[in-house]
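[09:14] KT: can someone run the structure on this one? pasting the chain below
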Amino acid sequence: MHRAATNCGMTLVELMVTLVVVAILMAVAVPGAVDLFRRLRIEGVANELGTDLQYARSESIRRREDVTLVSSADGSSYRLKGLTSGIVLKTVDLPSGASLSQGVTIRFESLRGSAAATGSIDVTVSGTTAKLTLAVDEVGRVTTCIAEGSFMGRIKPC
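[09:31] RB: done, structure tokens below
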């Protein structure tokens, strides 16, 4: 009994066509993925900042001392600090490429945890024009909104 030989591989032309299709798909997908990762980084920084603003508010009530959140002069970090005692409660260095509005101070009063004045702070990441804004109202409530760009999920435009 003699069996006919069957081809088990790909021809060079088939391989080249496959590589061209993969290259085209990568060229289309990679820029979108990079932009998505940058937007996710902005959201991550904004979420941490929002949590820390709530922490500052609760600490102002617990410690019976005004607590401030101060962003650095270059926008690469921020710290939470007791206003009277000078105790630094937390210092946060942002991930590479992320930045905040520079030199912003938000103060929570010790009596009710309300904000001394309304304020906002912007979060950005280099390489994209997208921007999120965290706003603090008179009662100390923190809200996040989209200042520029578009984001997936439940964040609303400002």
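[09:33] KT: thanks! The two ends are 79 Å apart (CA to CA).
[09:34] RB: yep, looked fine to me
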